[in-house]
Amino acid sequence: MAKSAEAFRTISEAADELDVPQHVLRHWEEVFGQVRPMRRAGGRRYYRPLDIDLLRGIRVLLYDQRYTTKGVQKIFKDEGVKYISELGRRAAAGETVEIRPVIPEDGAHANAAGRDGDVLELTADARAKPNLPQDVKRTLSTLLTRLERVQEALDEATLALEAIDHEERDAAE
């Protein structure tokens, strides 16, 4: 029986799903600090669905769009994690993902609107950072840290519930 879309994946399951070797996933964790799977005691990695989307987005950029590692790091810096995760979600849905400008045969430059939205644009407007006061930035940073801790606790609870469910199914068989 296949795992549900919301289930956590081990490194071998993630590697199979993304069609890359396990050592590549470990390398991406080192190179792209944004890739942080949950770890259990003993260091075993568990990839959340959001992690899989992010990894799939990295794969699209490196393998399909032919970006270099430094190029992907720049996209992380300029566009953020959500942008790359969205690339991964689109790829998983079977959508064609192009992020580089497309130049039609007549030589005119096509924008995203001219391509029925299948080009995910890198625009300066999307990168514009609001000019927030320092105390607001500090508060938001503190909230983000707290939310990350809550997410980790929820991930731990989800793993525990999955383990209990698995044990109950094994006992019933």
Kindly describe this structure.
The protein has 173 residues and is mainly alpha-helical. It has two domains: 1-126, Multidrug-efflux Transporter Regulator, Chain: A, Domain 2; 129-173. It has helices at residues 11-18, 22-31, 49-64, 69-79, 81-92, 124-127, 134-172; strands at residues 38-39, 45-46. The radius of gyration is 19 Å and the shape is globular.
What's the short version?
The protein is mainly α.
Mean pLDDT over all positions = 79
The total beta strand count reads: 2
CATH architecture of the largest domain: Orthogonal Bundle
Instruction: Label the structural class.
Output: mainly alpha
Side by side, the strands of the main sheet go: 1-2
Taken together, the total number of domains comes to 2
**CATH topology of the largest domain, anyone?**
Multidrug-efflux Transporter Regulator, Chain: A, Domain 2
Q: What form results from the Cα inertia axes?
A: globular
Give the CATH class of the largest domain: Mainly Alpha
Distance between the termini: 14 Å
* Tally of separate helices: 7
Major sheet summary line: 2 strands, antiparallel
Which range does the strand content fall in?
Answer: under 5%
Order of helices and strands: HHEEHHHHH
Rg, nearest Å:
19 Å
Helix content: 55-70%
Q: Give the low-confidence spans.
A: 101-105, 107-117, 124-128
